[in-house]
Amino acid sequence: MTPHVQRGIAQEMAPDVYRVELPTPFNVGPVNVYLVKGEKLTLIDVGPLTEEAWQALTDGLRSIGMSIEQIEQIVLTHHHVDHCGLLERVRQISGAKTLAHPLAAPYIELDEEFMDFHDRFFTDLYKQSGVPQEKMYIIQRFHQLMKTFSETSRIDVHLKHEQTVPHLSQWQVMYTPGHSQSHLSLYRASDRVMIGGDHIIKRISSNAFIEPPRDRSSVRPLTLVQYRTALQMCADMDIEQVLSGHGEPVLDHRELILARLRKNWERTDTLRRLLGDGEKTAYELTALLFPTLYEKELPLTISETLGHIDLLTILHQVDVREQEGVLYYSV
To answer: Among positive and negative, which fits the CA dihedral 68, 69, 70, 73?
Structure first.
């Protein structure tokens, strides 16, 4: 049975692995960060840049006789602000080095050239998708989010798939992209524990966010395809429990993954049905798929729609026509 989470108190979830739950101002709710004892004391993720999260982190560490100053390295599961926002503040106090996937770097460093490219990419993508001009403010809202809940920091060590985590010799890096291009998970074979970030979460299905390609090509990553592939990789692994970035541990990862993959196909079938009465843009399909959510959460919902269009495109089950820079889909 999963122990009840108490704010500000660290809980041992597996040998030498402690969870601290931090509040966030986001719809997803609290975020879990993990303290791992190894050759170096390691913090997995840090939470958003808020005083409430900082207080919960310091209280949680104190509850097991630890402090920020003692942290020797930080591993980021991915670059989203609810997981990386406090990075620089923790670094300044502890002197800890940061380890992450290389694709997290431009977001963590708030690289201006990359951010300009990021904006151009989304301007083009949303135009192609038929997003009305008055909704384009969502591109600026992303910047506001980054500047409000994180601050410029840096990554010292880049991590690759299947390498051993430096100074955590029992733990292996698993590259698990989809939710973000920089997403990685950590796996300890001795007791089959995975620290899974936002890759596998019990109560919610992780969104496969569309992101720009890092090589500046026009070909964007097929994030839902990536996500499904990374899930299938995990389904083939022997995992006792997944310690997630949000909520309680996952103890039945294969059943959960199967349900998520099945739900994907159900939504793909829904999308085909919606195209049955005539061609539509990605924006129009998003409004039909997510009628109560799409206006409030447009980047999230349009990512979901485009992901399912990608699946249909790969299977040659959808046709596309371009008119004045806008893509129209039909079956």
So the answer is: positive
